[in-house]
Design goal:
The protein is mainly beta. The protein has one domain: Beta Barrel (OB fold (Dihydrolipoamide Acetyltransferase, E2P)). Helices cover about 10% and strands about 40% of the residues. The protein has a 5-stranded antiparallel beta sheet with strand order 6-5-4-7-8. The mean pLDDT is about 90.
């Protein structure tokens, strides 16, 4: 069986191993997420993998209503990492209605059925 190739496949393999990485352009020094072959800021192909600090701020949040039999309500959050990239995930350690814009959060990789997923947990401290 051939292993998938490319930056997105590499990213998922790293998540599956419990590691969250983002890219940084060595030409313009900006961070990039979701993984790409070239920098969306300057067009350079000089991207390197780096481990982010893992802290960020909730930019937006909504609650998805689900029946209890389907797992109950969950939040969907847009989070701005301190490196300057935004990603969609959820804040996992709070009730869906307790997640607030401006809340500081920290990443963690959650493994479910062998697949890594980036989730956030609330941390104390003021918004950046």
């Amino acid at each position: 069986m051939n292993e998938a190739q490319g930056v997105q496949a590499f990213h998922q393999r790293e998540l599956d191993a419990g590691r969250f990485l983002i890219q940084r352009c060595t030409a313009c020094t900006k961070h990039v997420y979701f993984p790409r072959e070239s920098c969306p800021h300057c067009g350079s192909a000089a991207l390197e993998w780096t481990t982010p600090q893992g802290t960020g701020t909730v930019y937006a949040v909504t609650t998805v209503r689900r029946k209890p039999a389907d797992g109950g309500d969950l939040n969907v959050s847009l989070v701005d990492l301190d490196e300057g990239v935004r990603l969609m995930s959820r804040v996992d350690d709070l009730a869906p209605g307790a997640v607030r814009i401006g809340q500081r959060v920290k990443t963690r990789v959650h493994l479910q059925d062998g697949r890594g997923l980036v989730l956030f947990d609330a941390i104390e401290g003021p918004a950046a």
